[in-house]
Design brief:
Phosphorylase Kinase, domain 1, globular, two-stranded antiparallel sheet, 2 domains, Aminoglycoside 3'-phosphotransferase, Chain: A, domain 2, 367 residues, alpha+beta, 10 strands
């Protein structure tokens, strides 16, 4: 994972943080009497992640960005609890060290966890990692296996059954993400109203619920330094909950840009899913279904695809709004509005194809 100097807008009182951590951490495994060197990780568009370099080892600090947040977003206590519980059942979840809800320490709540050290795929494979087609295919399978395995976790045994809100998960997702988009919309992007209306009118029925990550991407996966085809860590549990596992897969595939996709879409690729050996989105779905035994109809998958793309657009628009309002000065966000426009066009194309398919399959046969 790439780290850099802390951006001025994301800086905090390191000595205050270090003093609080020394007094409150358990099982850190490093010398907390020292003041650490702090670096900021460059990836991610939501919660901020920092490297704390202590004598004897590194820790990771997570905190929300400053500014206004939608209800329920950037909940450090929730994210900390999910990781703490899951780390007892899944070896690839980082173990937590401390949670601070006192905003007087660094200006926001934060939590600290152990570091899982290894290369992380981003737009390209990590520096020094070279995979041939067969190895890339193995990496792809192993990453999808990671998601399928997560969906098989016994939620009650993990102590996370209360994350679920019962039936209506899909409807809540549609309503919630539609509301978020309307609140974050700026004048230079589309309304998405036709897409949101179609999503609301064609929802699939609820499936049996599982634990879902809700931000499952290659750049949240840590690879084994000795074998880059093998995942050893899964990061960023901010949005994890209990819900529809196919929606979790669709959300992941919303980021999945293939080598044959249109040029504008390829401009916004953020993970190495274009490499020879990577599955296509349709192949990922088929592999996941074979791995888990679930079935998804063509009409259902069209809906899931549109929702996954729409959700990515909402996230991009929220970040873009933060950039326009001056809450972040990170210049990589200045083009996110274009991504939102491209994603709306893609959603509309899938909807048109779904309508044509539905009309052709419901016509009376000629006599």
């Amino acid at each position: 994972m790439s780290d850099r100097e802390v951006r001025a807008e994301d800086a905090f009182d390191i000595r205050a943080m270090a003093a609080w951590l020394a007094a409150n951490a358990t099982g850190a495994g490093v010398d907390l009497t020292a003041v650490p060197e702090v670096r900021q990780f460059s990836g991610g568009v939501s919660n901020l992640t920092y490297l704390l370099r202590y004598p004897g080892g590194d820790l990771i600090l997570r905190r929300p960005p400053r500014g206004n947040h939608v209800n329920g977003a950037h909940d450090m206590a929730r994210e900390h609890r999910i990781q703490t519980q899951l780390a007892r059942h899944l070896p690839y979840v980082p173990r937590t060290v401390a949670l601070c809800e006192d905003t007087s320490i660094i200006g926001t709540p934060f939590y600290v966890m152990h570091r899982i050290d290894g290369p992380i795929p981003r737009k390209e494979l990590p520096p020094g990692v070279q995979l041939d087609r067969e190895q890339t295919a193995a990496l792809c399978r192993n990453v999808i296996d990671l998601l399928a395995g997560l969906h098989s976790v016994d939620v009650a045994a993990a102590g996370l059954g209360d994350l679920g809100k019962g039936d209506g998960y899909v409807a809540r997702q549609v309503a919630g993400w539609s509301e978020r988009y309307r609140k974050a919309r700026t004048r230079n992007v589309g309304s998405f109203e036709a897409v949101m209306r179609w999503l609301a009118e064609h929802q699939p029925e609820d499936r049996p619920h599982t634990l879902v990550h809700n931000d499952f991407r290659f750049d949240n996966v840590v690879l084994d330094p000795a074998d880059a085809t093998r995942p050893i860590g899964l990061l960023d549990w901010e949005l994890a909950t209990v819900g529809d596992p196919i929606l979790d897969l669709a959300n992941s595939l919303g980021y999945w840009v293939e080598a044959g996709d249109e040029p504008l879409l390829r401009l916004f690729r953020r993970q190495p899913t274009h490499l020879p050996g990577m599955m296509t989105r349709e192949q990922v779905l088929a592999y996941y279904c074979a791995r888990t035994g679930v079935t998804v109809t063509r009409a259902e998958w069209a809906w899931y695809q549109v929702f996954g793309l729409f959700r990515v657009a909402v996230i991009a628009q929220q970040v873009y709004q933060r950039y326009l309002s001056g809450q972040t000065t990170n210049r990589k966000f200045r083009f996110f509005g274009i991504a939102v426009v491209v994603l709306e066009l893609r959603c509309r194309r899938i909807i048109r194809r779904a309508r044509i398919t539905r009309i052709s399959t419901t016509k009376e046969p000629s006599r």
